[in-house]
Design a protein that fits this description.
With 148 residues, this protein is of the alpha+beta class. It is 34% helix and 18% strand. A 5-stranded mixed β-sheet has the order 1-2-5-4-3.
Length: 148
């Protein structure tokens, strides 16, 4: 049986879809960073916050489901899903990170790549994203979630 050759995926469109799905699942602090000029491993990071472990699972499950359904792609690798404080879906050309607030604040992944351009979520149809004080300051927008 011959190997099926798959066309390359549009990593930007896939990252935007992942962000939109996360928003529909009530994720907050949604960011897409274009990291291709800063690292060779991937093109985009989609970084979102979930309120609790159930929401981490729900967001991860829904992103996997919708990317399979709409773009016929599956992650190459996943991590952290059992822990519930952080989970990762690695699609090769883009990586989705879902954190609970404490883990997001601890790792500050978006700050490690702060030279990376941030993609405007309006491209994904997201116009009312919610942002904590820290992420809002980073993005230069008004916070909508007030944290201590």
């Amino acid at each position: 049986m011959a190997n099926k050759i798959l066309p390359p995926i549009d990593s930007r469109a896939a990252a935007l879809l992942a962000a939109k799905v996360a928003d529909e699942e009530k994720a907050t602090d949604i960011m897409i960073q274009e990291v291709r000029e800063l690292m060779s491993a991937t093109d985009y990071f989609v970084i979102v916050t979930a309120a609790n472990y159930r929401q981490v699972d729900a967001i991860i499950d829904k992103i996997e489901e919708e990317l399979k359904k709409q773009m016929d792609i599956k992650p190459n690798h996943s991590e952290g899903i059992d822990a519930g404080t952080w989970a990762l879906l690695d699609y090769g050309s883009f990586v989705v990170h879902v954190f609970q607030p404490e883990a997001r604040d601890y790792y500050r992944l978006e700050s490690l790549w702060n030279d990376a351009p941030v993609i405007d979520l309006k491209e994904a149809g997201i116009t009312d994203a919610e942002y904590s004080d820290r992420i809002a300051k980073m993005l230069g927008v008004e916070p909508t979630i007030h944290t201590r």
